Amino acid sequence: MPVTQTSISYYGLNYVEHAEQDFTEMLEHGCTTVILAVTEFDFDFWRPNISRIVDKAHEMGLRVLIDPWGIGKYFGGEQVSLFLQNNIENRQVSALTGEKLIAACFNTPSFRDYFQRFCLTLAGETNADGFFWDEPHYALPKSFASITGGTGEDWACRCSVCQQKFHAYYGYEMPRLMTDDVKQFRWREALFILEDTSRKIKELKPEMEITCCVHATLNSYYVTEQRGYDNWDMVAASPYFDVFSTTIISWELPDHFFEHITRRTVEIAQKYGKASERWLMGYYKQPADFDQIDRVVDLYESLGVDRLSAWTYRGGHGTVLAAPDALKLWRRIGDNYQRVLRKKG
């Protein structure tokens, strides 16, 4: 099966006429879909223009997905969070130190309400084609795992809400070490907010598509990231998600890692009847040899990936996370997008 969708993420949510020029460039680069990275500030300040930008993208022939980018520092992203600015409580808490972290606890009613209001408002006010759940995660652990050990000893979240939920379910106090019960609890609670929100979006607009993008980690017998969504079977099995996506891999990692992650992504997606999506790193870092981009795209195609995506528009040109040769990287990604779409016919 050929690749059916080529996406690019986009930050420019201010003026429709500016977005129109950028959308023209995206189309020239072979993009079929734009992922609008909507920040909490965009929602709070620029919301009247978001629906107009969605409509302009559709008018020009692009599909549109909305990414609640970095919301509460629960999703991936570099921007600041209004929720954290306005909430001293409802934050994730370190299991070992008890310190509050710079991340919302998505198991609290406060953040769940905030997240759903954000998403359901945009679902109702715009004609977007769907939503993109962008690297949802617990704040800790963040360190790399050893071959036989676990990740760093500390983890989140052990706030009062999580402790109460854990005790109500298991009947004993939530441990400070990451036991099997803690792992199961974290997986189940992490999935609830996304499933519940996805269900409500589909009740509002059944045609809306939900992509869930999780971290591209080994998740082997010995090495598991333990950030809440590392049980890929549990994520992909959800009836509320349509696309199973695994996120960006650094160009510096070996070819066999790309193959391993991609093969597992496709296998898991197919197992549960979902479309598969793999990503290209189009910002910050670039391959030493740009031909590597062609080879990775060929690998994705050969392993049966349904959709390609890249972060971000113009290689992040003009931002602190721009690739060294941002526009050259953007052109090469565009060349590959055009190449795979020609095969689609």
Q: Which strand order spans the largest sheet, edge to edge or round the barrel?
A: 1-2-3-6-7-8-9-10
- Here the CATH topology equals TIM Barrel
Please report the total strand number as a whole number. Answer: 10
Number of helices: 11
Organism: Natronomicrosphaera hydrolytica
InterPro entries: GH
Protein name: Glycoside hydrolase family 42 N-terminal domain-containing protein
Structure notes:
- This is Glycoside hydrolase family 42 N-terminal domain-containing protein.
- It comes from Natronomicrosphaera hydrolytica.
- The structure is a single chain.
- This protein has one domain: TIM Barrel (Alpha-Beta Barrel).
- A hairpin with a 6-residue loop joins strand 4 and strand 5 (100-104).
- An eight-stranded parallel β-barrel has the order 1-2-3-6-7-8-9-10, surrounded by six helices.
- Helix 1 runs parallel beside helix 3 and helix 10 (291-302) packs parallel to helix 11.
- The protein has 345 residues and is an alpha/beta fold.
- The protein is built from eleven helices and ten strands.
- The mean pLDDT is 95.
Write the layout of secondary structure elements.
Layout: E1 5-10, H1 16-28, E2 33-38, H2 40-45, H3 47-59, E3 63-68, H4 82-86, E4 91-93, E5 100-104, H5 109-125, E6 130-134, H6 160-170, H7 180-204, E7 209-214, H8 232-236, E8 243-246, H9 255-271, E9 275-281, H10 291-302, E10 307-311, H11 326-344
Parallel strand pairs: 1-2, 1-10, 2-3, 3-6, 6-7, 7-8, 8-9, 9-10
Antiparallel strand pairs: 4-5
